[in-house]
Specification:
The protein is an all-alpha fold. Helices cover 69% and strands 0% of the residues. The chain is built from nine helices and no strands. The longest helix has 28 residues. The radius of gyration is 19 Å and the shape is elongated.
Length: 198
C-alpha cells in the first residue's frame, strides 16, 4: 500500500470511529485530509470500498499483533490457544459493531470471512502442536479450525441470527464440549471458553 493510500485509510478509520461510518461522507474525508477529490477517488471509488480497506487495515494490524504474540508463546497447545483467543479478540473495535446493522449485512459477511481466514493458519499450527503432544487427534488441523471458527462465528453472530440471550447462552455453553469432541481433546480442556455467569 502506498503512503498516500495508507494515509487515506487511516484518516477514514479515524473518521469512522469518531463520526460513525454512516455519518461520514467522502467529502468529510476530503476536507479532513485537505486533499483533492480526485486523489481520494483515484484510490477508492466508493465509501464501501474504503470501508473494506479500513477493515482490512484493522485485520492486518490484528494479525501482526497475533503473529508477534504467537512467536513468544510458551506452554502446551491448549494454553497457547487460550492466550491467543483472548489477545486476538477484535470485539473492542467500535467500527466492527457498526457492521451488525442490517444495512451492512453483506459487508459484514465479507469482512468476517476475511478476518477468520487470516487467523485460522495460526490456530491450525497449534492444533498440529497439540496432536504431537497427544492432546488432540485429527488428521485435518486446518479444516477443524475452519469448522470451529466459521460455524461458531456465524452461529453466534447476532447480526446474522437474532437469538434471544437464552438461545445465545445455550450455544456458547455447548461450544467447549463440541470443540473437545471434534479434536478428541481431554474433557474440560476448553473450559476457559465457557461463558462467565453474571
Amino acid at each position: 500500500m502506498t503512503n498516500r493510500k495508507l494515509e487515506i485509510v487511516q484518516a477514514a478509520r479515524h473518521l469512522f470511529h469518531t463520526k460513525d461510518y454512516g455519518n461520514t461522507t467522502m467529502q468529510d474525508l476530503i476536507e479532513y485530509l485537505d486533499i483533492g477529490k480526485g486523489t481520494v477517488y483515484h484510490y477508492f471509488k466508493s465509501k464501501e470500498e474504503l470501508l473494506e480497506a479500513v477493515i482490512e487495515n484493522i485485520a492486518e494490524e490484528n494479525l501482526a499483533q497475533m503473529e508477534r504474540l504467537f512467536a513468544e508463546l510458551e506452554g502446551n497447545a491448549i494454553e497457547k490457544i487460550e492466550i491467543l483467543l483472548k489477545k486476538g479478540n477484535l470485539s473492542s473495535e467500535k467500527l466492527l459493531s457498526e457492521l451488525h446493522r442490517p444495512a451492512n449485512a453483506m459487508m459484514h459477511l465479507r469482512i468476517l470471512v476475511s478476518l477468520l481466514r487470516k487467523q485460522t493458519p495460526l490456530y491450525a499450527a497449534l492444533i498440529v502442536q497439540g496432536c504431537k503432544e497427544g492432546l488432540f487427534q485429527t488428521k485435518h488441523p486446518l479444516e477443524c479450525v475452519e469448522m470451529i471458527f466459521f460455524s461458531f462465528q456465524f452461529l453466534t453472530d447476532i447480526g446474522i441470527h437474532p437469538w434471544t440471550q437464552e438461545e445465545l447462552a445455550r450455544r456458547l455453553e455447548a461450544l467447549p464440549t463440541l470443540i473437545e469432541t471434534l479434536l478428541k481433546a481431554p474433557t474440560g480442556s476448553f473450559h476457559f471458553l465457557k461463558p462467565k455467569i453474571q
